[in-house]
């Protein structure tokens, strides 16, 4: 048993290293960014080179359609700042993206480790390999998008949920929703129900207190930090949610049909593993013995939560793959289950 555990851990470390090399590869061959990344990219630059002289910051001249939080760029800048005197601005940006990719990978590794407890090291390792070989997840891992900052928290929160660390799950999910992507409430709602059903989350005074404290702390932190940088009182993610969900102005950037995520977006992200996900579901639905096992039931419940998120999100007319990319790791678990069963 000890030998098998050692082999499993060494394989895990090897796959994590492979994933990091792939992320670095994408950082190097794709050095430029799209307009969606411009705010965070410029914010990292301004924090490093202008520090407290906010009047020089780019966002005051080019604010964009909606205000974004400075919490993500601020965190990356803290790790990049010590190296900035020794490298060019281009290299500093590359270092910042590599740091973001490393934080993402830490979350991915934590999720794979958490999965080992329920599904075994084989599925955990297959999950890592599948994810590493998919283009979109590894590509977005180092992009300075609000979605990527949120994705880091999503991975750690999923790991906490599978480990039954419900207080940590509540904290991380609350931070992801209130500071980075408000629409993640559509993702965490089904996940919370999943956690309650499988007793990974237990309603008690400590949990309620954690939820209230996280809500108050995340909103206040965002308001105080971002109001300083934006030079007016605001809660960025509140304004973004109102713009996208209430006013539905995101549709000005184009619309796609309801079925796009299920028939085009997710298959594009999953690539060949789409067939493994389908096979896994057929196996669970058609084989009663497979369906009755606790790990399988747990995995199927996790997938239902992900499907619910994508289904509800499909009602918003403006669609981009990065909006639902948080569900891909869950589908990759299903693919890993199918692969192991062959």
Q: What's the quick description here?
A:
72% of the residues lie in helices and 0% in strands.
Question: Could you characterize the architecture of this molecule?
Answer:
The protein is mainly α. It has one domain. Helix content is 72%, strand content 0%. The protein has 16 helices and no strands. Helix 1 runs parallel beside helix 5, helix 2 packs across helix 3 and helix 8 packs parallel to helix 10. The longest helix has 31 residues. The protein is globular and about 65 Å long. The two termini are 23 Å apart.
What percent strand? Answer: under 5%
What percent of residues adopt helix (DSSP H or I)?
Answer: over 70%
Order of helices and strands: HHHHHHHHHHHHHHHH
For the report, how would you describe the main beta sheet? Answer: none
Rg measurement, Å:
20 Å
**CA-to-CA gap between the ends?**
23 Å
Uncertain parts = 1-5
Task: Report the structural category.
Answer: mainly alpha
* Mean pLDDT over the residues: 92
Continuous helix count: 16
Transmembrane segments: 12-29, 94-111, 148-165, 171-194, 206-225, 258-285, 297-315, 321-339
Subcellular location: Endoplasmic reticulum membrane
Keywords: Endoplasmic reticulum, Glycosyltransferase, Membrane, Transferase, Transmembrane, Transmembrane helix
EC number: 2.4.1.-
């Amino acid at each position: 048993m000890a030998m098998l555990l050692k082999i499993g851990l060494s394989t895990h470390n090897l796959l994590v290293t492979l994933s990091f090399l792939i992320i670095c590869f994408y950082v190097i061959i794709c050095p430029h960014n799209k307009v969606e990344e411009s705010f965070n990219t410029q914010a990292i630059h301004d924090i490093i080179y202008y520090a407290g002289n906010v009047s020089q910051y780019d966002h005051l001249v080019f604010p964009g359609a909606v205000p974004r939080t400075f919490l993500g760029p601020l965190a990356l800048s803290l790790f990049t700042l010590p190296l900035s005197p020794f490298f060019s601005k281009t290299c500093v940006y590359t270092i910042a993206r590599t740091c973001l990719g490393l934080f993402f990978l830490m979350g991915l590794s934590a999720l794979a480790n958490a999965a080992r407890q329920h599904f075994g090291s084989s599925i955990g390792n297959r999950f890592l390999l599948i994810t590493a070989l998919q283009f979109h997840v590894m590509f977005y891992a180092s992009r300075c998008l609000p979605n990527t900052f949120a994705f880091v928290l999503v991975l750690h929160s999923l790991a906490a949920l599978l480990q039954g660390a419900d207080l940590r799950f509540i904290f991380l999910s609350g931070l992801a929703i209130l500071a980075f992507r408000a629409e993640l409430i559509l993702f965490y709602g089904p996940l919370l129900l999943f956690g309650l059903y499988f007793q990974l989350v237990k309603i008690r005074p400590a949990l309620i207190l954690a939820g209230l404290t996280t809500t108050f702390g995340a909103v206040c932190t965002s308001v105080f930090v971002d109001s300083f940088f934006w030079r007016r009182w605001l809660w960025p993610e509140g304004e973004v949610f109102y713009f996208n969900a209430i006013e539905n102005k995101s549709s000005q950037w184009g619309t796609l049909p309801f079925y796009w995520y299920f028939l085009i977006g997710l298959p594009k992200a999953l690539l060949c593993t789409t067939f493994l996900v389908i096979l896994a579901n057929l196996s669970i639905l058609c084989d009663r013995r497979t369906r009755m096992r606790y790990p399988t039931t747990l995995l199927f419940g996790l997938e239902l939560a992900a499907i619910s998120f994508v289904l509800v999100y499909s009602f918003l007319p403006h669609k981009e793959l990065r909006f639902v990319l948080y569900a891909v790791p869950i589908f990759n678990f299903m693919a890993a289950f199918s692969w192991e069963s062959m």
